[in-house]
Every structure is written in C-alpha cells, then in structure tokens.
Design goal:
Helix content is 64%, strand content 0%. By secondary structure, the protein is mostly helical.
C-alpha cells in the first residue's frame, strides 16, 4: 500500500476509534488482513463484484485460522488485549469499517452473522494441541 493510501487508512481507523474506543487499532488492521487471508484461502481474491464478497460466518472462520497462524496459542491473549472477547466483537469491528467506508456490505449482511458462539480460548488451545500432536507424530 502506498504511503498516501496508508495515511488515509490510518486516518479513517483513528476516526472510527474516536467514535468507538472498545477495540484497539490493531484489531481493525487485523480484520482487514484476515479478510485478505480469507479471500485468498477461499479463492476469491481474483474475483470481482459480488463474487468476491465474504460473509460474516466465512470471515469468522477465516479470522480463527489466520489468528491461529499468526499468534498460535497466544491468539486469545492478543484478542483480549485488543478488546475482542467474542466473534460478535469482530462483527462490531467490521460494521465500524463499513461505516468508515473501508468495507462494503450486502443488504443481507448483519452483525448477527458474526455471532457463532466461538470460545476463542478453547479453539486456539485445541489448534495448538493438534499442532503439537502432528509434530510429535513425525
């Protein structure tokens, strides 16, 4: 991203945070990165228009995978430091980004799409345990 684009992104995120202080600026950047990760993982990064759209449930799944890749068993602690306690918080972040015109939405998109009951602590502990078991099995 070019410097002027990065500055514009930072300004918009700072404006969002002036209105809603619940989440760290890093949480907003993480969601944008997780969206890119999810689009690539689902093969939509080369698509355009509606075909490129990622729904809330897909993004929550992508967030879990991306966080596990980036932070391993520390993901829950990172999320907590950012003010994120549940998948619904990511919905709040996404809709804040939509309000800032950094993301777009379909009329059917809803904050409820992000409510999936994920227990991040359990999810990341299980993923870490699976990784350790794969390493031990080698």
């Amino acid at each position: 991203m070019a410097a002027p684009e990065q500055d514009l992104l930072e300004d918009k995120i700072q404006n969002v945070r002036r209105r809603d202080r619940r989440f760290s600026r890093n949480a907003y950047y993480f969601v944008l990165d997780a969206l890119d990760y999810t689009m690539t993982h689902l093969g939509r990064d080369e698509l355009t228009g509606e075909d490129r759209h990622i729904g809330g449930k897909e993004l929550v799944a992508g967030i879990r995978e991306y966080a596990a890749d980036q932070f391993g068993p520390m993901a829950t602690i990172v999320f907590e430091r950012w003010g994120v306690r549940s998948s619904a918080d990511f919905g709040e972040i996404v809709f804040n980004l939509i309000d800032a015109e950094l993301l777009s939405r379909r009329p059917s998109d809803s904050r409820l799409d992000f409510v999936d009951g994920t227990d991040f602590r359990e999810t990341f502990a299980n993923k870490h345990r699976e990784t350790l078991e794969r390493i031990a099995a080698r």
